[in-house]
């Protein structure tokens, strides 16, 4: 679907659906939104808007890194959004020229819709221009990363505190997933951060200069996001190392129990085995107190063993 | 609560509570402190002081990184303090203009109170100006990080020396907490460090030039703090690796004990089992010295085993 | 084999096999391709084309990193391709002068063949020049890295999901191989990335300026490739750490089973051993309910043991 | 104690103890050494020499990083020495002005004493000036780090070779200490290295220019020291990883022994247990060769077990 | 030993042994080689050639990092070679002035000898000058690192493939040695790489400009060497991690065998122990089929156990 907002020289807003209409008219500036466009509509990037072949290719193929490319009469900016639950990544391509902004996205992305609705609800468009549209979209894109990281932080805390007392292999599996998602976030956020840094320092986008504070504010958020991702990766690192350490500590304890039990009963069972032998000539068997002497001996022996293990700290 | 200090052209200090009063008067410079302000008071940032909307947003929302933003007629500096026990983070926002300094903090922070009391006790204000106020606050903020790190270092030493002989899983839990707190400290200190570096090299804050040595001294402390945090993180790393190594070494020893005990008694118990069988025709059972021969055999066998284990170094 | 395309001043294309022919003729520009050349043909780099001795050495010896060297009247660019299955690395050496491009490769590489066929099929050569040839080759080289990484990503997913339920040592072996291949890819891709960055910013290759967008597009792909390699190395890292953690967790479980079994049966077997002794005077043996009392004792004892282990969570 | 060397205009050396005397006299340049000064003496930094308050604070408080601060009429340089056995760190503060060098240290440091004695023994002072004094002190400070690292390298080699056959937990404890000391060294050496780099490139210390080679030589040594520390940290890393690997390998071997022993004797002991049962009707017990048949069976069974373990490589 | 080549103004070569002779003569340029010099010969660096005291110190003491120092009338370049088997490091010091090159090395190094022999065999010296000598030596030094790395790569492959089926502790020991040698190589190669980079960009060595391609070729090789070392360190890292993982996996398997054996035989042996007790009143003992019933019970029990273990995957 193609949607167009065009602003007249006296700041009136018109909406239309045909690119020809806006190009033929006499407008101050216009915004063309390609939302999940048909193949026919995609072709108009070339036939009507005459964008460079490489820029159009980037739009169609997708799988670009967030980036900014300068062409003779426009700049192409590619940025990414991430869906809150599925972690699906969507691309938004923005063409900025002297009089136009063109947004192109294969999926229906809420960030662009929000800005569209803001613009439509405006009574007067005199505070708006191309760069205002661009700022609002970028601002929404970046803001939407925060709830995603907060959600991941909650999940990390759940793994750390483990209120449902899940077993360690389940926790490790969850941790692995969380790390994977943090990695995806890092590969989405850091290039956008570097992109906004370039936008701030670019001489090609003259309209930025008047809105410097606004784009600097977005850059601020991206720095914060980038630090949160790094910090959370490091925390998951620590949690996993902690799990492994604790597991190893518990294993040590279990093996100590095994060794204590074995060390106490192996000699006792051996002694009982000796007097269970059927030799004809075993004088102790006929002693009147033989049985009691042996029981006492076993008792003393096991006591000595236990003392030794207590001294070694294996009864902790 | 809003508190104001205003300085007259002959360096006299007046205190007041109304922003209108200071703006209408004829003062050399003034300091407005928003300490845990009410919603009504917060609105005056906009209605009376006419700060930029983005700057006011940063104050109200909080959760900013330490940073410095330049606006047309003022600069906004955001810095963090950390409470000594709870590790709670508080934000201090400082607006600096030609004639004013405005501090804004949602919590009652001791660093600002100390400077307020210093200023109030001063007989003559001729050595003071806006940048002196700013320097004193920043100096207190940075100085307060030192006892926090010293306290963490003491805790790390306690974990390493373990005078209360806590078990290893408790120590690992403590170490994990300490690492987490060091991480928080790093994410507080390093951005302040970078911020002070920018302040030192900023051309927007002209009053810094006359107090260069003072701000350089703060920067020095931040470098020292940053190194202490990194160094302590690395030490906790080493302590944990050491714990894991020692745990693994001890486990080895325990398993050796288990193996030695099993290896000695398994064959002996087996031999006793053989002569405990009830076959009718077992000639050894009827030998006169059968019992003694078997006992001797067992003795020799266990001796040989022990020798072999001693040779292998398993009796260390 | 030596193949030559030469373009006349009216953009006609001629193909020939002799270097003398092209040098003696009056052509606008020409492309000489040394494809798996004989020793005789290699010598013509020196005798006919008079390239610098060091440049010729690099071609003949191979084992160069991807790089660009400037000589007085030409530039030498070395780049690598990697075969899809064998991971064999091949070198393509490209000499670029004012009127010529010379490609030299010891193996028959598909990337050059594709461009050759493109050029041959062209009706009119007026859109082509030396840098177009160079761009097309480089573009093919870089594009061919994508399927290789996709293939590695599929293999990594197979190791992670393990649908064939292979044992962990087989998976670890596969992971080790995958990491090795990722390392090889990194050492191929990163230098090419840095090389294209240099080409983009080089003042020696004047023809680049007109095709800036095209080479920037290649650079973009190389950034993407480089990030994919790094990201996949990190994922293999996480997978291996996960395997090790899970292995250690399972071992813990196995040892708990061993300890539980041993702890229950060692005391029971010892008690049975006691009443298997052959002492003449053992009053319990003659009690009418002695046997049942002992059986009950054993039952209670094992129940107590099991309760204790359940409380410890060893029956998870 | 305060010691002073003052040089007259004809390069004669005078020594004195009173700062007033040197300031009132007519000297070319002078060196004032505060060696472990009393509180009274410390005050003279302010009352007599009029240094900046922040510089004096740095001296008195200590705990500074190695650094250089520029003030209006002098520079303050802080550097560290480390004692050879105790690893105690001492600070040397050096004030350099147009006509004076002032050294301030709370402890009696051998590096300064050596230079003092060199200067005192000199017949003619015409080759000496303020920067010569400074160079000689810095040179001694840096040279004294070498024997400390050599000593650590010897200790690391002792841990690696383990000639006294200490147990692994003792070695790990030693390694941990060595790593800690290397960390301390790094935090002493790297800032001095960066400081000397700044001194070499400073425009504030004009006397450096004439002695460039000398200070570059010190910088060289600091680069070497820094690399030695990093390299040794990496080696201790490898040693510890090696210890852990070997420990894990040995544990594997011990557990194999345990498993072999258990696997052989558990079935044998079970069989013996069967024929130790007291059932009235057990025909095998009455067979004439029953006992021998069972012994043979046991022999065959244990042989089969041993074969299986040999095949599995557990008898390595 | 001191050897001298001196070139006359008509490019004739003379060889001599006395420094006086070359300095007194009228030569275009000369090369003085100090090969393992006597103390007497070393003194001539000062008395005859008047080099700076610090430069001479560096030669005599050795233990320098590869580096380049500028003095008023010459530059000193220090570089390292490594012997192929022993990994002994040797230093070559090169002094370059307007008319002379002086090489100084305490050991007889093949790299210098090769260049000497090349120069001696030359018929005409008109293509040679000071920088040609320097280039040839540096080229040999760098080329000699390649076989050393190839040899290490072979050793690493041997450890990985383990054709002699060495035990893991032997392999780990070898790996540790290999890592140590790679570390030594890195500390030799990286500073030389940085040194050649500085040489390429130095304005002090004017003769470099004419041979830029040659020194760039050396730099190329050093980049390649540096990457090979880093890559091989990373591969040894992976090999060791793989060993540890496999060891841990095998241990898991061994412990499973132990647990299975114990779990099967512990209950069986206990049951046999029960019916080996000597109570007077044990009715089962007198049942006609008691023995067979118990045997059947044991069979069923062990079968159930085995089924459970198979289900758990412990018979893999
Ligand atoms: Mg980052
Ligand atoms: Mg970061
Ligand atoms: Mg960041
Ligand atoms: Mg960070
Ligand atoms: Mg970490
Ligand atoms: Mg960690
Ligand atoms: Mg830091
Ligand atoms: Mg630092
Ligand atoms: Mg550091
Ligand atoms: Mg750091
Ligand atoms: Mg470390
Ligand atoms: Mg570590
Ligand atoms: Mg690399
Ligand atoms: Mg990369
Ligand atoms: Mg990267
Ligand atoms: Mg990257
Ligand atoms: Mg990672
Ligand atoms: Mg790792
Ligand atoms: Mg990882
Ligand atoms: Mg790790
Ligand atoms: Mg370093
Ligand atoms: Mg270094
Ligand atoms: Mg290094
Ligand atoms: Mg390092
Ligand atoms: Mg390492
Ligand atoms: Mg390591
Ligand atoms: Mg490197
Ligand atoms: Mg590298
Ligand atoms: Mg490199
Ligand atoms: Mg790695
Ligand atoms: Mg690794």
TrEMBL record, chains A, B, C, D, E:
CDD domains: TmCorA-like_u2. The keyword Transport applies. Pfam families: CorA (PF01544). It is found in: Cell membrane; Membrane. SUPFAM superfamilies: CorA soluble domain-like, Magnesium transport protein CorA, transmembrane region. It is a multi-pass membrane protein. InterPro entries: CorA_cytoplasmic_dom, CorA_TM1_TM2, Mg/Co-transport_prot_CorA, MgTranspt_CorA/ZnTranspt_ZntB. Signal peptide: none annotated. It comes from the Bacteria. GO terms for cellular component: plasma membrane. Keywords: Cell membrane, Ion transport, Magnesium, Membrane, Transmembrane, Transmembrane helix, Transport. It catalyses: Mg(2+)(in) = Mg(2+)(out). One of its GO terms (molecular function) is cobalt ion binding. The chain crosses the membrane at residues 254-277, 289-310. Mediates influx of magnesium ions. Alternates between open and closed states. Activated by low cytoplasmic Mg(2+) levels. Inactive when cytoplasmic Mg(2+) levels are high. Belongs to the CorA metal ion transporter (MIT) (TC 1.A.35) family. NCBIfam families: corA. This is Magnesium transport protein CorA.
């Amino acid at each position: 679907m193609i949607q167009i907002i065009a602003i007249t020289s006296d700041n009136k807003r018109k909406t239309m659906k045909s690119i020809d209409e806006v190009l033929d008219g006499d407008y101050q500036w216009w915004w063309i939104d390609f939302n999940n466009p048909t193949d026919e509509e995609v072709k108009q990037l070339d036939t009507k808007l005459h964008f460079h072949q490489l820029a159009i290719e980037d739009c169609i193929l997708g799988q670009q890194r967030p980036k900014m490319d300068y062409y003779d009469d426009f700049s192409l900016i590619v940025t990414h959004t991430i869906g809150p639950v599925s972690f699906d990544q969507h691309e938004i391509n923005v063409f900025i020229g002297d009089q136009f902004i063109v947004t192109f996205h294969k999926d229906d992305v809420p960030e662009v819709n929000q800005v569209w609705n803001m613009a439509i609800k405006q009574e007067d468009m005199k505070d708006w221009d191309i760069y205002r549209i661009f700022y609002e979209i970028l601002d929404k894109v970046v803001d939407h990363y925060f709830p995603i990281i907060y959600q991941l932080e909650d999940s990390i805390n759940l793994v750390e505190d483990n209120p449902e007392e899940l077993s360690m292999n389940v926790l490790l599996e969850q941790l692995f997933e969380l790390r994977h998602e943090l990695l995806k976030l890092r590969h989405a956020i850091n290039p956008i951060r570097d992109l906004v840094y370039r936008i701030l320092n670019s001489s090609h986008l003259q309209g930025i200069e008047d809105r410097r504070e606004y784009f600097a504010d977005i850059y601020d958020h991206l720095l914060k996001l980038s630090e949160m991702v790094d910090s959370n990766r490091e925390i998951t690192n620590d949690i996993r190392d902690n799990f492994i350490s604790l597991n190893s500590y518990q294993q040590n304890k279990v093996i100590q129990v095994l060794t204590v039990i074995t060390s106490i009963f192996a000699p006792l069972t051996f002694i009982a085995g000796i007097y269970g032998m059927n030799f004809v000539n075993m004088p102790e068997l006929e002693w009147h107190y033989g049985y009691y002497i042996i029981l006492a001996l076993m008792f003393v022996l096991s006591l000595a063993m236990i003392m030794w293990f207590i001294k070694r700290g294996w009864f902790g």
